Amino acid sequence: MSNQIFHIPSGKLNVVDLVHPGETTVDTIGATRFAGQIGKRIKVDQSNIGRLHDSSVGDVQGGIFQLVQLTDALTLAPAVGGLVYWDASAALSEYRVTTDQAAADFQVAGVLLEAATEVVPGHYTIIQVAGVAECLAVASLDDTAFAGQPAIAKSGLTDNIDAATAFTGANLQLYFGTHLEIAVVDTITKVLLNIPQRF
Fold first, then answer.
1. Neighbours of 2 (CB within 10 A)
2. Residue 175 is inside which H or E element, if any?
3. Which of 45, 53, 41, 30 shows the shortest CA–CA distance to 4?
4. According to the model, what pLDDT value does residue 4 have?
5. Is residue 153 within 8 Å of 35, Cβ to Cβ?
6. CA 198 to chain centre
């Protein structure tokens, strides 16, 4: 049976840089005591999220969060509100993610809550996989922004789609939610996530 404990030493969802699941250092017994929490998810509602995140790192809204491992070799540095993708080279049971969109076959895994200064490649962290997420927009949006537009993944960031562009298999593969507000370039914007869950 998997260990159902969700151990976060910092007590904050967006301050999680773990050498092993649940541990900030190498365990003295040689193996982690919390291996069963890899890939586990927790649901936190809006009334409780305030005490479970550090606002100096970034805002976090209520939703579902999952413990994952960042791959060792990242092509893009982690950013608060940046997207991560399932690492296509990893076994499903490893719950490993990457910032490299193409290497992951474009499978959006979730939204990062931390930046490169807070989490080390190869370590474990928590991503948001459902609910309203704070997502970082691209430097140049594909179309004039308005609330209600589909949110499209683009190189680890959030984009929209030109209103004249038909949905195809290629861009549908990059769809991960709906903009709840007018996106502004290089700025955090709220997106209602619609990401297929990996259990």
1. 10
2. strand 175-179
3. 41
4. 46
5. no
6. 13
The C-alpha angle 27, 32, 34, rounded to 5 degrees, equals 130
| Model-wide pTM > 0.85 | yes
The single residue listed with the structure tokens 């305030």 is 50
Nearest to 150 by CA among 187, 109, 179, 184: 179
Single-letter amino acid, residue 30: G
- Return the residue matching tokens 């948001």: 128
d(CA 5, CA 193) in angstroms, rounded, equals 25
Three-state DSSP string of 49-99: HHHHCCCCCCCCCCEEEEEEEECCCCCCCCCCCCEEEECCCCCHHHCEEEC
DSSP-derived 3-state class of residue 190: strand
Residues with pLDDT less than 50, the chain: 1-4
Q: Are 141 and 162 in contact (CB under 8 A)?
A: no
- pLDDT at residue 176, as a whole number: 95
Q: Residue 125 is encoded by which pair of tokens?
A: 């962290």
* CA distances to 22, 172, 183 from 138, in Å: 32, 18, 9
How far is 72 from 121, CA to CA, in rounded Å?
5
**pLDDT for res 68:** 94
